[in-house]
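Why does residue order matter? Because the sequence determines the fold. Keep that principle in mind as you read this record.
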Amino acid sequence: MKSIRSERFKGRIVIFVWLCVIFLMWQEISFILADLAKDKMASRTLPYLHRIIANLFVRRSLLFSHAGQTLSRALIGFLAGALAGFLLALAMSLSGMVERMLFPYLLVSQMIPILGLAPILSGIIGDIGRTRIFIAAFITFFPVTVNTLAGFKSVEPEKLTLVYSLAANKHTVYRKLMMPAALPFLFSGLKIAAPMAITAAILVDTLGGASGLGYLITYSLYGGFPIMVFWSSVLLSAALGILSYQMIAAIEKICMPYKYGRR
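Structure:
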């Protein structure tokens, strides 16, 4: 128990040190560009990080309102994609025929580039908000399906034989054996998909929407907003991606306390 807590504390220290290193390196490069090289484009190329952070608070109403639009659509798509991915993995686990029929098409679907798919769906659906949701669900669907299916398959045949020898039905086998085995794999897929869903929603925002972080990023590059809005939007997008991962990790700790040495 103490060793686990010690390892987690060391991990947090390492993360903090790396954040400090990144901050200092960013500041140093910005200083070289702006004050030593006298680059007139330094404010656009790489502004001081502390100014970007300060701009987050100065324009917080603008930035956070658009971030809320992106986050809400990404969350709906993430939940829909996670549910669909889990149900498909369950269906393929229950039936080998379903897996053989659908898994090749599942792989082919991931060969479609999002940059090409998003404009097509936007034209078909006709609503940028729904397109965000669909793309976020599409991105989430694959890692959740593949990881959950791998979890179901990770159960040793000897355990299945033992459970069935005790006259357990299919529902009991999945509830008592298969689901606990698949749970770590499911959360692995969710932690992969969560930041990707936000990235996908931001990507769709850049296609001509009137709200969202992608909208701010695009229009600030073309002069519609000050350039600091661009950098603040990029920083906020990265923060949302990290936050989404940490939220899934926190839920994992609640659902699987035994994995982290908790009772």
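Residues 67 and 213 are 6 Å apart (CA to CA).
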